Amino acid sequence: MPNKSRAPKVYSAGYKRLTTPTSVMAAWDLSVTVEDLGADAPPVTLSVTSDLHVGGVILKLVEKTQIQQDWSDHALWWEQKQMWLLRTSWALDKYGIHADARLFFLPQHKPLKLGLPNGKTLKLRASFSSPVFQTVIAICRTLSIRHPEELSLLRPIEEKRKKKDKDTREELYDLTDVPHTSASRPCMYNGMPAHFMDSAQMEVVYKMLSVTQPPPAPEVVSKQYRPASVVDKAHINGRWLDSSRSLMQQGIQENDRLWLRFKYFAFYDIEPKYDVVRLTQMYEQARWAILLEDIDCTEEEMMLFAALQYHISKVAPSEQQLLASTTAMDNLESALQSLEVKLEGENSSASEMLDNMTAPELCDYLKIFRPKRLTLKGYKMYWVKFQDTSISYFKSKEECFGEPIQQINLKGCEVAPDVNVAASKFLIRLLVPSPEGMNEVYLRCEDEQQYAQWMAACRLASKGKSLADSSYQGEIQSICSFLSMQKTNSNGKTSSTDDSINTYSLVSPRYHKKYKAKQLTPRILDAYQNVSLLTLTDAVLRFLQIWQSLPDFGLSYVVVRFKGSRKDEVLGIAPNKLIRIDLGVGDVVKTWRYNNMKQWNVNWDIKQMAIEFEGNINIAFSCITADCKIVHEFIGGYIYMSTRNREKGNTLNEELFHKLTGGHEAL
Amino acid sequence: MDDIDAMFSDLLGEIDLLTQSLGENTDPPPPPVPRADSAVNLSIGFTDLNESLNELEDNDLDALMNDLMADLNASEEKLAAEIEGLKDPSAPKPDPPKPATSAPSPRLPSRTPSLPSPPSPQSTSSTVTSPSSSCTSPRPPPQSSKPSKEEIEAQMKADKIKLALEKLKEAKVKKLVVKVLMNDGSSKTLMVDERQNAREVLENMFEKTHCDCNVDWSLCETNHELNLERLFEDQENMVEPLLAWTRDTENQVLFKEMPEKYEVFKNPQNFYLWKKDRKTLKDMKDKDKEILIKENFCGTSIIVPDLEGVLHLKEDGKKSWKQRLFQLRASGIYYVPKGKTKSSRDLVCFVQFDNVNVYYGQDFKNKYKAPTDFCFVLKHPQIQKDSQYIKYVCCDDERTLRLWVTGIRIAKYGKTLYENFQTSAKKASLSAMFSSSNQSTPSPTIKAKSPSQANGHAPPPPGPIPQDFGGIPPPPPPPPPPPPPATVHPFPLLPSGPAPSPPPPPPPLAAKSSAKLPSKHRSPSNRLPAPPSSVDPLPPPPPPPPNEEAPPDFLPPPPPAASFPPPPALSSMPLPPPPALSSMPLPPPPALSSMPLPPPPALSSMPLPPPPPAFNLPPPPPDPCFPAPPPQVFSGAGGPPPPPPPPPPPPASLGPVAGPKLAVRTAGSLKKTPPAPPKRITPSLHGGGGGGGGGDFMSELMLAMRKKQGN
């Protein structure tokens, strides 16, 4: 890029001019404010010549302050020009510094408050002098998040000042003492980056990073800012920091608050084993996007998201413990375990085969109702036998060795709960397919226990599994736990106690108005039955998958005005394409794919982007809700993301990133 | 008349082999219920098996085996007797059995909870096919120190237990005999067991038809009552949907090319960029297509084409159709309610895909007064008749229909669809390579190769099932001249397409086309005799037929299933195999045992020899296997290829290989011997010798079992 090549040129030219004339240059006074001396301390004045290099200035400065400390992280900041003097071998002249320059001598790494996708705030030291891209890489290294190129920093949305007092009391996780390693990958110890093992405190931080948070209280959700329109959503994208400039250059001060978020929705190479923190934070970001309706979904999808959240919140604590204990034993243990599993697996070929053939059964008196058939008769008590995937019912227990009144195979049927704990109503509604259509059958249970057993059996049977299936007990438990949730919901209306979950916490506020909690519960339960047996990781992955398959996933909006058009329109930037959205209708008017893109240019003066696609298609637009640079960086960033591949390994091609996104420096 | 009788008995024998099932199925069990019952019965009896098996002395185990065997024989005899009865009255058709059994659908005749069949071919197949449980896992265990004597004994015991269990398990496996209609009006009959997926069945069809194996070949089911048609996805289990058919159904299974099956991977732009103009779509570069596929199918989650449009929906119970604005999402199909926006949150869910399949509707304009004939239907696979639970949707044009049906399949099956395509494409390119080199294989149509010794299967004779069966019988005549290796194809072809046809009796059945399933029980005894007698009439018992066609139908299924790779190999390199075989006649056995794949090819390649040996030397094979069947099985799975001592010293070079195979079959037909497939045989020998890998595996198994008991 031009800028890259220009710097050296300047350098060599200056060098010649300054060094060849060996004549003594005039000395002049340079005043430098040393931050470490305190805010009120007057600037230190040094006598320098124009050919003194920056390193020399620093040396003089340090000597003059007479403070013994590690100055290695300090550097000079030129306030008027908003730039760091990081090239210590450059002479003042080369930088163009004269006596009127206001210089500051301060550390390059300063504490920063970082809002994480999970809503927690972390305090850590970040580089204020390197391009944000590098700063993010360093932060991610500290946090143990792979593929930092997918994340970036943005200015948070101001919160209403009223609550400010509360906010300051908010818990801060402090990581400022963590040394900066330049190792590309932190060494792992027991599945945790080593620096998190230092103290109990650090382990707490790691837990916060790697374990999903419990569902937020519904009040918290409803108080948060929710974008109401595409234009609202577009505004957030005006907040992204410029990746090619430093924090300091962008006006960020020590202890300022920034958000760390996934910015490019092209998640590469997700590997649950190494991506614990990454996946957790990704899940949190997705969850909040759903709860705050940052991304739209249908009601069915919302219920599934709710079910997954519920499941994740339930499994997360226990599974995390498991993880902690097993990681301690690590490889050896797991090797032994897998060996054992293998042996048992083989063994099971014999014993399991037997088990399969001697499937357990479930028998009891239940009330059965077949809406279509016996409309008038209502529920009637039968002796019901559940075996394999079928239920058979008899008049009484004594007759169970004869022919059943009817046998119903539940494979492929739909199972719906109809439960009201308070009213002691435990109904299982079955929709059983037959050649003629679907037949409705209701099973009425007496109590929770019975209901859980039969419900679990019905669910397994509908998937073609018998009672012998290993998931049966788990299914019973999850049904019980869900029932208890309903119980607490109906008893105490405010279920903000820790051990129960309010279903309102799982859905966006829109549904708080639309449904009562007790209406919501069965719907979520319905969706829950398909996910109740997932492991934590699988559930998180599933959540992410569903999120990613939403039609609007990965779209970052910017309000723009197309050349020749007089109205505002919205440009949607997706991982593989740009879309033009008509604000009036909300429809996608046009789509351009990156792989058809020939080139794009930015006219920084009139803040206009011009893009040329194959087939002589040219578009140009000016950006309204975000800086051109942000849009430019989004597009270049996605193109960069698409260049990643396995052969190149995991090393980041930083240069390429800046080439593709750094546009303004080219000027 | 004699001929017919002979053929019939052959048929019976063959069927026997296939489904050694039994007894009960002759009775008219309605599909679902009976199955369950029989399974139940079985399981009850063995409730305590687990413990008791271990307590048994070896003698006892042997006795158990014998009992199982005896049971089988008894039931077979019973069947045979019944069949005899049936046979007399009517012509030798498979029909009789069908009616008698009142099998549900003609096609699905025997879903037989087969009795614990001895290591019949079937069982073998089962062991092979069900890698999940036993066979596959065993492989890993590397060989370790030599087992001590006790260990060996323990192993033997464990082997026996395991074998017994396998048999029990096998007994529960449902199998259907399915008649598949070809695009030329002919049909093929094959046995499908419940563990097979559509891909495996397709592979069988490829072998039988010698088609070009391109990715468009599909198996479809039609629903006559509703005018529906749907292709089976490759990963789909075949038996289950077929069992949903009603007893008197006229539904059919078709084997034909369906370009839309994987069109989305050939021209993804037509689905993912469907809004673009036609020219852009047509000129799409291959590179861009690849990118599209990668974007939509290779990411962390698959992306469903963003379909949205007005479709016509048939109103419940009425013949009127109303328009709605539908939207396809990964989670289902939605529509925009009247007066609402298209915003996601306002969408109303029309259907989710968990419990429904998508079908093409045919001639709906007539049948349901649809606005056009481009209709699709969403329904639970078990629903077979018109019902309020069926959703009928009508599109304006064919392109829209394709878009939606494909979109729904993508949403429903996700990545699996792409994986299926990759598998199919691999197979297709392999076979294309070979065919291009050979030029022997006519691609597209499944033409029965003209001459072939028709087992009667392939030949187009409209003849339905019966014919097929008839075909089978042609017990390979004794005089199998040395098959020309090079000309493999020719052989495979059923030259005698006509020959098979002779058994036209079936035609009537054919009309029904549907199925031939009923229990084909042939008394083994019949079987044996039959071959000899029948032999004469039929021409050179098409060597290929035995392997490829007849046998394949029934027995073979498993092999292909087990070894995916192999099939392709076979089809792809028809010629090569034979030569190889011919060159090294003796070695074959070992090879077989070691590598599952090879066998099939071998068989197909050397058709002639096998038959003769089999007939002639039936006894040898069985005997060897009998004693030590279990070990065989295991070793077969993972063991090193033992020396191929197999009995058949026979003639021609090919002889040996074929011999074992045939022997197996024969054995099966005899029913007395638990004919072990070739693979097994070797193992068995091996086992006796000194337990190679198999032994190790067993010892591991024993250890594991002990451990478990300890717990």
Automatic annotation (TrEMBL), chain A:
Pfam families: FERM_M, Kindlin_2_N. PANTHER family: FERMITIN 2-RELATED, FERMITIN FAMILY HOMOLOG 3. The keyword Thylakoid does not apply. The keyword 4Fe-4S does not apply. This is PH domain-containing protein. GO terms for biological process: cell-matrix adhesion; integrin activation; integrin-mediated signaling pathway; leukocyte cell-cell adhesion; platelet aggregation; regulation of cell-cell adhesion mediated by integrin. It comes from the Eukaryota. Belongs to the kindlin family. One of its GO terms (molecular function) is integrin binding. Residues 367-463 form the PH domain. SMART domains: B41, PH. Keywords: Cell adhesion. GO terms for cellular component: cell-substrate junction. CDD domains: FERM_C_fermitin, FERM_F1_KIND3, PH_fermitin. It comes from Knipowitschia caucasica (Caucasian dwarf goby).
Automatic annotation (TrEMBL), chain B:
Residues 174-260 form the Ras-associating domain. Residues 686-696 have a biased composition (Gly residues). Residues 435-455 have a biased composition (Polar residues). GO terms for biological process: signal transduction. GO terms for cellular component: cytoskeleton; cytosol; plasma membrane. SMART domains: PH, RA. Keywords: Cell membrane, Cytoplasm, Cytoskeleton, Membrane. Residues 472-509, 529-632, 639-653 have a biased composition (Pro residues). Coiled coil: none annotated. This is Amyloid beta A4 precursor protein-binding family B member 1-interacting protein.
